[in-house]
User: Fold this.
Amino acid sequence: EHCNLKYSDILPNNVEGYPATKEFLMKVVDILLDFVKSTNDRNAKVLDFHHPADMMRLLDLEIPDTGLTLQQLLLDCSMTLKYQVKTGHPHFFNQLSCGLDLISMAGEWLTATANTNMFTYEIAPVFILMEHFVLQKMRELIGWNCGDSILAPGGSISNLYAFLAARHKMFPYYKEKGLSAIGGQLVMFTSDQCHYSVKSCASVCGLGTDNCVMVPSDERGRIIPSKLEESILERKAKGHIPFFVNATAGTTVIGAFDPIPEIADICQKYKLWLHVDAAWGGGLLLSRKYRHPRLSGIERADSVTWNPHKLMGALLQCSTIHFKEDGLLISCNQMSAEYLFMTDKLYDVRYDTGDKVIQCGRHNDIFKLWLQWRAKGTEGFEKHMDRLMELTEYMVKRIKQMPDKYYLILEPELVNVCFWYLPTRVRNMPHTAERIKILGEICPILKGRMMQAGTLMVGYQPDDRRPNFFRNIISSAAVTEADIDFLLAEMDRLGHD
Ligand code: ABU
Assistant:
């Protein structure tokens, strides 16, 4: 009988339905806990890969005309997680966001249950105040005792907020008058290693990507400050209007840190906005051992992107953008929608953060981070950062101990370890362009084998200097030295031929 219950038998449709509601939700929680357990089981696979056409046959994805039973919904939940990649598995090294922090996950469960929107204090009072406290703490870690911040849906949008605020600061009439308030060609500058979202700002905001100047970087992936200055002067000579420089603190592929003090000097000299995209490397602000010299000078920035869902391990997604100058966010983005942001409310309406952003509805991304930070304390996060860097050093050491099987491409500044795997047939070849070409071709083949075996996930990509290479990320608290040994042995097992 219970198997045939439907959504109409539980709350809120059936006011007598609390027992059935509880039973259903407890079963959902059991399914979630099974996933947590197998995520942390090193004998379980990371993924059960199927090609899209096969996956469609394995799943029932149809939307029915008549609603299904709760029993079927529980089967749907189990089936969904059965084929989900376990991004928290200790052998998942594929993305910048790896791991499954269970305190943060508990926060996400609570967030889903509270199911509120973050635009006004009146419907999210506790969460809005949490944002206030956590973002202030993050600004302190950047080195500011003032400013304003907001959580945004991802690092790309955080970078866009920086762009918008910079343009607003330089051309406050743009908001009302549009392009005519500028009267010239705006130009922005970033390194050729930056995240693509920086270039996307130029496209989205009407500059055109030709006016996002990609300044060359050195062999370690760090912007060359003299080239930045040359590019600014070149554009000024053309009558263009340079206004924005992005420095990256932790590039996506190789984890390089641009030299912020030198860039800040140039920005000061030419009166340009300095944005630091620390979406990836920002977590190292929590480590006294590693924040200098990598993030030295970050306090001189006008804005900083920092994604706690990366190195800090907060659940996806959790991205923050910080401004040194208070009041810019609201003045840049405010539309004063009267149905939502009335000024005659019962409380101090400066806590209605919704008018600072370009979206209306805003997801609650703060509770999971606040709860996680309460659990770990700032000291716990510092230990986490130091441990990730220690594990990275361990991986580099192990790679260097196996020069016949692995080739380290460069010494990491962050937890990105970039390397080639050397199968038996190339081991006696000199390391020339010919061998590098073969090594590049091997990457997708070996990655395919990892996915078919389901035992391991490590990402690969080319860059502008070399063909495909592996980029291993150590950002999960689950990883140990033994997992790194497993990774290196498993790649060798799958790829030695
Ligand atoms: N937004 C950068 C994420 C890329 C990655 O996880 O590899």
Observations:
- Residues 2-86 form one domain.
- The mean pLDDT is 97.
- The pocket of gamma-amino-butanoic acid is lined by residues 95-97, 155, 252 (CB under 6 Å).
